[in-house]
Each structure stands twice: as C-alpha cells, then as structure tokens.
Design goal:
It is built from 13 helices and no strands. With 244 residues, it is mostly helical. The radius of gyration is 20 Å and the shape is globular. Helices cover 70% and strands 0% of the residues.
Length: 244
Amino acid sequence: MSDGKKEEIEKLYGAVMSNDETVYRLCDFEKLCGAVLLKDEELAKEWYTGEYSHSCFAVSVTDSLRRQKNGFIVILGYMRATVMSRNKSSAVIMLENMYMRLVENCSDGDDVYHLFVTAFRDFCNRFGGETDNGADRYDELSNCTDYIASNLKSAITLPDVAEHCGYNPSYLSRKFKQVYGVSIKTFIQDERLKAAAAMLRFSDKSIAEISSLFKFASQSHFQQKFKKKYKITPLQYRKNYKHE
C-alpha cells in the first residue's frame, strides 16, 4: 500500500471517528475503514479473521453467537459511517438496518462471517456515491417494512402489503426478495418470531396466547418455527432469558 493511500486512510478514519461518536471503540477499526476505502475484500477478511476475531465484544454477554452478532452490528456502524463520509444517501442507513435484521437469522459464527463478507461488498458498492443506477432501492421499500412492523398482530399477506404500498404484488415480491434476500412471507414470519421472543422474555402471556396473538396457525406450528430459528423451544427460551 502506498504512503499516499495510507495517509488517505488515516484521514478518513479520523473523520469517521470525529463525526460518528455512536460507534464503539473496542478494537482498532482503521483497517476496516481502509478496506472499505480501497474496496479491498481480502484486507477486510484478513482484519475480520485476525485482530477483530481476537477482540472482545459485549463481554457481559455469555452467549458466543450473541456476542458475534453484537460485534457484527458494531461493524455495520463503522462501515456505514465510512460510506456516509462520501455518500450521504439515506439508502446507506437503510442498508445498515437491513443487515441488522439479517444477522438475527444467523445460526452460527460461519453464518455471521459470510454475512459480513456480503455486507462489506454491499457497502463498498455504495462508497463514493455509487447507487443502483440512481434508484434508492431501500427507501423504496421502507414503507413496506414499516407497514409490516405495525401489523404483526394482523393476518397480513403479500397482497395486503402490495395494496397498502401501491405496488403490483408480483413486482413487489421480486423486488423485496432482490433487496432483502428473503420473501415477504419469510420476512413477516421472522419479524413475528422476534416479537414473540421479546414477549416471552418481558410478559407473562402464555405460549398459546403469544402464538394466537401473532397469527401462527397453531401453537405447535409456532413452536416448530420458533425452535427452527432459535434452536430451543419457546418454553426453554423463556426459562433461559426471562427478564434478563
């Protein structure tokens, strides 16, 4: 790497740190910022598997996977801040929000690592003001995700979301899958499961009540989907995390 490029990275990193105080300074992120600047995927991978993997995130969290997910969210903050030093588009924030959702679907450390690589590529494509032919694809669908979030306790479907947001259902189905990597049906189910998990922790409602509240076909169906996502049953989850 040339001295000029090193100096550019140092200046960029300094700007990121001074303009964004919300990110955490738990390890040296300068190499990551440099990797985004250079669009150097190998450098990013080297950083992730090297000094980053030996840093300590969320030390109070005993769950190793949860710690990795928390660390990934910190990484997103740095990549977002780096990109927004050159590209102020709200699409960059939407991109960060999308990956914050996706990491919750990761079932192990390898999943988190592969999502990091995908996110790195996506943020690099935004660096320097690059967009998808000028189309803000994340802003375009934000009204859809907002509608879904507000109606998790209703029996909403793809046609409902399409009608509310003014899209043709077929177009919306393709576009949503392209942007978020999952179908609307899967996205709605994942959001319901996350809301149900929170209710298991912070309410005294029964599992049957929670299942019915979030429109699962039956309690057994809810338990099946919950265990597939969280690797434990709703009852075990409640015992492990109640009021934690």
